[in-house]
Amino acid sequence: MTIRLLALGGAAILLTLAACSPATSDKPAAINELPAPLSAEGDFGATLQAALIAAKPGETIMLPEGTFQLADGLSLDIDGVTLRGAGQEKTILDFTGQEGAGEGLLVTSDDVTLMDFAVRNTKGDGIKSKGADQIIYRYLTVEWTGGPDENNGAYGVYPVESKNVLVENVTVRAASDAGIYVGQSDNIIVRNSVVEYNVAGIEIENSMNADVYGNIARNNTGGILVFDLPDLPVTGGNSTRIFDNEIGSNNTRNFAPAGNIVASVPSGTGVIVMANQNVHVFDNKFDDNRSAHVLIMSYSLPFTDERYNPLPRDLVLRDNFYGAGGNDPQGDLAPLAAALGGTLPAIVWDGVARWGEGAAQDVNLAVLEGPEVGFISFGLGKYPIDPATMAPSPERPQATPAAEPAAIVLPHADR
Question: Taking every annotated instance into account, which residue ranges of this chain make up the domain Right handed beta helix (predicted)?
Fold first, then answer.
């Protein structure tokens, strides 16, 4: 038996939740403070790329209202630039006819603000930033209008290898990996955003010091993921707070291309924490996630990275609301659930405390929910799995709750 957690298909059920991402910024600069928008005449993609190349630090590039067909991806490598449209529903950069498989927009400079526009149907990632400190993604929409499809771009909004990352009031739909993905970064806020019909709604991977709050994660395969993976330049992900989110009906079939790490995410999971440390999940609303509301697991594949700890450690779950769920577990959770009567409780832990021949560790999993909130440890013991030693138990592990990380403060959040 393996715990690859391969997901099966499933119908998505809409939640009647109000979107928290308005169509445009609620604090627009006065009209006389903004430059004239770029000309919409002629080859708009060429006009915009020329403006991005010629931009000066501190400059704002205004995008006009309209839907613009772009054949080539865009790039920005000048510090201190703001790229601003007329609104998420008013300025649309449409890459349906994109040549090549790159991003819609790639940013490799610091102190950049991206706001008030939409990116549609890129062949690769929607908007990616790499090594871009103090970046702001604000009032943006990234979507693939054909709905869930493995041929969609992997990531909608994709900051990586950065410090001081702000993602707010962003909407992402139908990414074949993660709607909002922050990787190998430090000091992060993801807030007040809507992610739907992605494989993973929001993913914090190999990152430190992240606050994820005020978001709606609905109709994804998995709602919010906090992972740490081996063999990346930055490892040892830790100190994430997931709070005040609405995480429901994440029952979309897993449409990630085969071989992607998220191809193992079971349809119907609310929050997944894998091999990460000091993760606090509190004051969230979970509802109608058919596999499990919270899944806690270790990394299960062989690895050689000596820096890497494959076990989740120092997790705290408290004060969450758990509605219906766990009634139709998917993927490799299905046979495990069948052995337990066919359903799963709100909180599921694989019960792994060591890897290979290594010594057992105290994972320090603190489940501080009321007694009415169900919990199960599959009691797998270790990876690789020995089915003969599996010992399921509803008993919550003994733990000393880890201290909650301090709230994230970003020096540039109010600009």
Answer: 81-228
Cβ contact 103:127 at 8 Å: yes
Residue the block writes with tokens 């962003």 = 170
Q: How far apart are CA 366 and CA 273, in angstroms?
A: 13
DSSP 30-83: PGGGSPPPPP-SS-HHHHHHHHHHH--TT-EEEPPSEEEE-SS-EEE--TT-EE
CA distance 69 to 312: 45
Angstrom distance (rounded) from CA 212 to CA 271: 12
Closest CA to 173 of 205, 137, 147: 147
Distance CA 307, CA 73 (A): 36
Retrieve residue 97's tokens.
Answer: 């006819």
Domain ranges of the chain: 1-20+193-415
Task: Note the pLDDT tens digit of each residue in 97-143.
Answer: 999 889 999 999 999 999 999 999 999 999 999 999 999 999 999 99
- Which contacts qualify for 332-337: CB closer than 8 Å, 24 or more apart? 332/2, 332/3, 332/4, 332/5, 332/6, 332/266, 333/5, 333/266, 333/291, 333/292, 333/295, 334/8, 335/1, 336/378
Length reported for the chain: 415
pTM of this prediction exceeds 0.85: yes
